[in-house]
Design brief:
alpha+beta, Aminopeptidase, 8 strands, 37% strand, binds coenzyme A
Length: 169
């Protein structure tokens, strides 16, 4: 286990976690992130999560609640306005949403990143009309920098909020 907050834990992504990506791959759950992925894309994503794990650079975690797989969260580097920042993103399986799991997992991610960081800022770019993700950023002390056109996943443009957390504050 990498981090714990009551029943919510973060663990390094593992080969058996592909089912979490599958459970999150519904039209409703993918509504703000470009729609459901093909089985091939989903497996590519799973493989990337397994292969690319360098603390301080890029890491994906399984979110569990009471020991059961509940979602994914991670951080990675992104070039932004001429410098390198961290970006984060999260998902919780549909049947466990609305219980505060993503908010607690994001708080844990920040804790982990504070111990590993090389860059000052952590950004999140949820769709401007994604109420839950924008609420999580607001609650965890991210500052709203404005709105931007954002490409996620590659090939899909969306209107996003640019939230920034100062990890040095
Ligand atoms: C975004 C997502 C991870 C949130 O997961 P969750 O575990 O249900 O989130 P939480 O229960 O921690 O709720 C987060 C906050 O959003 C608020 N919220 C949820 N739905 C809301 C809505 N429709 N309107 C306003 N606020 C809402 C909750 O009240 C909560 O705030 P609070 O703690 O102040 O009460 C989940 O909806 C998801 O997986 N969505 C699909 C993937 C996605 O869009 N990821 C975002 C990429 S940035």
């Amino acid at each position: 286990m990498v981090a714990r907050n009551g029943p919510v834990t973060l663990d390094t992504w593992s080969s058996s976690d592909v089912d979490i990506l599958e459970r999150c791959n519904t039209p409703e759950a993918k509504r703000y992130v470009g729609g459901p992925e093909t089985p091939e894309k989903l497996l590519d994503r799973h493989q990337r999560y397994l292969d690319k794990a360098i603390p301080g650079e890029i890491r994906m975690f399984r979110i569990s609640c009471d020991g059961l797989g509940a979602g994914s969260i991670g951080y990675w580097e992104r070039a932004w306005h001429g410098g390198l920042v961290y970006e984060t993103g999260w998902a919780v399986v549909p049947d466990l949403q609305g219980r505060g799991i993503a908010g607690q997992a994001a708080a844990l991610l920040i804790e982990v990143l504070l111990g590993e960081r090389r860059h000052r800022y952590l950004h999140a770019f949820p769709a401007s009309d994604n109420p839950a993700s924008n609420a999580i950023c607001r609650k965890l002390g991210f500052e709203l920098m404005g709105e931007c056109d954002f490409e996620y996943p590659p090939g899909n443009m969306m209107r996003s909020s640019d939230w920034r957390l100062d990890l040095q504050a």
